[in-house]
Write a structure and sequence with these properties.
The chain is mainly β. 5% of the residues lie in helices and 21% in strands. It holds the Pfam family CA_like.
Length: 265
Amino acid sequence: MHTLLNLAVSLSLASPLICGSAMAQDLCSGYGPQTPRDISQTFGSNTRLFAMAPSATKLNLCNIHTHTNAEHKGPDFTISAGSGEHGGYKCNESASLTAAELAEPGHGGGAYHGVKPGDTIEVHWVHSSCDVEPGKGLGSCLSDTCANPQLRVETQVFLVVNDPDALNFMDFSYQGNMSNGLHQAKTLPTGTGEPVVFAGSTTGPSYTEQACSPFQVTWSVRPQCAKLDINSLNVWAAVGNVFEEDHSHGVRQLVTAPELLAPIN
């Protein structure tokens, strides 16, 4: 989830709680289920339970951010991008893009950094049960009177291309949109498969299987990639957004230990 969990920066980038020695190879213990995961696998033996968050339509949108390469692994994003902060997974169609789709707009560069045509990104729409307004980082998902909200992240993996006929990110942006008194994205992606819903945590490169996230998050991850026009990401940054997002973030490596995963029902 975006490097977003730093109480001041983002649900994905928060400072980790280190379990034991920073150099220890043992899994963290005493934590709830972790994220990201392979959504095609339903196993998990973490038994720490928490109430799953309501649907996104019943919560306030509090943050939108992106990660370059998918943090999760799914049926349509299985190509490994390696380890570390810039690892993760790429969409299966990455190797079959046309020269036009891979062309850099304006001969390179743009208002939104850390993404180029041919890249895969994972977008997180973070929702909170608190009565809050959208803004920068996890701090926007909390308040003085609501320090332990229910959190839900709606997730879509995109293959970024230079093509005005591809999906437009501005259609999925916030831009002050309200619905039934709640802050909401203008729309969320559809047509990319039934979302896989499971219990997990926040993400981002600060966390590992030895340094776990303490936050409890309901995840809703769509299993198929969709093509997204890079020019629309640049517009999102150029016109300004309340989230102060102008670049794509790093990833947390896949969590595979059953002890750190919740079963998917």
